[in-house]
């Protein structure tokens, strides 16, 4: 019982001090002593990220080596039957997930447009 009590006292002290000072995070969100809730954080970007950026950040994990049957980047044979279906179908498959690929290809923070950009990037570099 004592270790828990000491643990709680230390955390309450830290929370009290940060509440009195006001804590600013790396995102610029501030916490003050008048609220117990986390502030809402809005991430805005004026333009969607490029297909290359999304591919390098997310898609490369599977598409660079063909994990679980994913079409490999740069492999025309892997992409030809898929690209024949058109970008609308490729986007729909990516958004809902297909075979081992989870919905949105694990990029839950990506917009539909960014996912489409990544698809176009992979197709264009796999001809």
Automatic annotation (TrEMBL):
Residues 46-126 form the Cytochrome c domain. Keywords: Electron transport, Heme, Iron, Metal-binding, Signal, Transport. SUPFAM superfamilies: Cytochrome c. Pfam families: Cytochrome_CBB3. It comes from the Bacteria. Residues 1-26 form the signal peptide. This is C-type cytochrome. The lineage of its organism: Bacteria, Pseudomonadati, Pseudomonadota, Gammaproteobacteria, Lysobacterales.
């Amino acid at each position: 019982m004592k270790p828990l009590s000491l643990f709680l006292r230390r955390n309450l002290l830290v929370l009290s001090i940060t509440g009195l000072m006001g804590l600013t995070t790396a995102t610029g969100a501030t916490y003050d002593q008048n609220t117990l809730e986390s502030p809402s954080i809005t991430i805005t970007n004026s333009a969607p990220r490029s297909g290359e950026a999304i591919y390098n950040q997310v898609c490369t994990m599977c598409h660079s080596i063909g994990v679980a049957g994913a079409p490999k980047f740069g492999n025309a044979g892997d992409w030809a039957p898929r690209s024949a279906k058109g970008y609308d179908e490729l986007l729909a498959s990516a958004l809902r997930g297909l075979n081992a690929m989870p919905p949105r290809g694990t990029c839950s923070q990506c917009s539909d447009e960014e996912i489409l950009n990544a698809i176009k990037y992979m197709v264009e570099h796999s001809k």
